[in-house]
Design goal:
The protein has three helices and seven strands. By secondary structure, the chain is an alpha+beta fold. Strand 6 and strand 7 form a beta hairpin. The longest helix has 26 residues, at about 1-25. The chain is elongated, with a radius of gyration of 19 Å.
Length: about 160
């Protein structure tokens, strides 16, 4: 009896990682992104008030394994004239995210979103990188949309 119990528990524990992966695949394709701008305005104060957003978080719907780190990723629309203000005040280069830039399971709802034929530019002055946090911002010259990915954006 004891041997069967141990085998049953072992089989259940062995199946758990496969169940978790399959759950991520099915849950990540729902198109469930966030549209609230207040958390993004707190995370990226230099961008000023935002007029719209589509973004996801690594903590959305408790689908991630527990982690002290938070990653947010997505798109936001800048207020009219804000990109011109930023490009006048900071040095920018033509550079976009690698491929579609969505590499994590929680970013799947964002695939296919964003501006059409973007002309991405980026400023190292606006990006942040340090121990335990980082922020990368790409701006589309045509649409005033910013593509962002940030690790622990609130400090």
């Amino acid at each position: 009896m004891e041997r069967r119990r141990v085998i049953g528990i072992g089989a259940g524990l062995a199946a758990l990682p496969a169940w978790w992966v399959l759950r991520q695949e099915s849950d990540g394709a729902k198109g469930d992104w966030r549209t609230d701008t207040a958390p993004l305005e707190r995370a990226f104060p230099l961008l000023g008030p935002l007029t719209g957003a589509k973004w996801v978080s690594s903590r959305d719907n408790d689908r991630d394994l527990p982690s002290p780190e938070l990653v947010i990723s997505g798109f936001a629309r800048l207020a009219p004239g804000k990109l011109a203000e930023l490009t006048a005040a900071h040095a920018f280069v033509s550079e976009g995210p690698a491929s579609d830039g969505f590499t994590s399971w929680f970013e799947k709802p964002l695939k296919g979103e964003g501006p059409e034929d973007p002309q991405w530019v980026r400023s190292n002055e606006l990006d942040r990188d340090g121990t335990g946090y980082s922020t990368t911002l790409w701006f589309d010259r045509r649409s005033d949309i910013v593509r962002f990915r940030a690790l622990n954006p609130y400090g």
